[in-house]
Specification:
By secondary structure, the chain is mainly alpha-helical. The protein folds into 2 domains: 51 residues, Arc Repressor Mutant, subunit A (Orthogonal Bundle); 134 residues, Tetracycline Repressor, domain 2 (Orthogonal Bundle), CATH 1.10.357.10. 71% of the residues lie in helices and 0% in strands. The protein has 9 helices and no strands. The N and C termini lie far apart (67 Å).
Length: 198
């Protein structure tokens, strides 16, 4: 009886191999040959799933975004923590607070640089940016809806500021973890969100 191949699982395996090559060697070294080797496949087998490097990168980046969204949607509120703590922990989904998220963020930063020279990736980059921005805007909106937020906050400006802070913290921590530590990243986020509250 022929072996049944789960094609989605194989594509996920290839995407995860792509992440590994990007993190270990950089996105410029993420050739189809190297990714195929990291995934334990032949180059021909990989090309069966992805006809070009751009297509492979696009799928790999979509998977990063989907995983973040799935984690965020799976979160359930518990009365053991305050709504502010719940919202703060929600923002952790897009910060390099553990090894899994660190890998995702490293890959995303590498991808973002690639977007500057590969216009075929621009649409995906814009979509992920928009999704993340809306998620962070929802954090500010929730603070307002729960009547935690100070009166008169400008929702759009605060969403922009939170997005810039999150991106900046992620980059500082990844590039200079000894100067901007994990704990400082967490404390800075908590301080900022608290500063929006009454």
């Amino acid at each position: 009886m022929p072996k049944i191949i789960d094609h989605h699982k194989r594509k996920v395996r290839i995407a995860e191999a792509t992440w590994k090559v990007i993190v270990d060697e950089g996105i410029e070294q993420a050739s189809v040959r190297k990714i195929a080797k990291a995934a334990g496949l032949s180059t021909g087998s990989l090309r069966h799933y992805f006809s070009s490097q751009s297509e492979l990168l696009r799928f790999s980046m979509e998977m990063v975004s989907e995983r973040v969204i799935e984690r965020a949607k799976a979160r359930e509120y518990s009365e053991d923590i305050s709504p502010l703590e719940f919202l703060t922990e929600g923002v952790y989904e897009v910060l390099p607070v553990n090894e899994e998220r660190k890998i995702e963020m490293e890959v995303w930063l590498a991808f973002s640089a690639k977007v500057l020279v590969d216009s075929t990736l621009r649409e995906l980059s814009n979509k992920v940016y928009s999704d993340m921005h809306q998620g962070l805007k929802n954090v500010v909106l929730a603070l307002q809806s729960l009547q935690y937020a100070k009166d008169g906050l400008d929702l759009e400006l605060e969403a922009n500021r939170l997005h810039a802070i999150v991106d900046g913290m992620a980059m500082h921590h990844l590039l200079n973890p000894e100067h901007f530590t994990h704990d400082e990243m967490i404390q800075t986020l908590k301080y900022h969100l608290q500063s929006l509250c009454k």
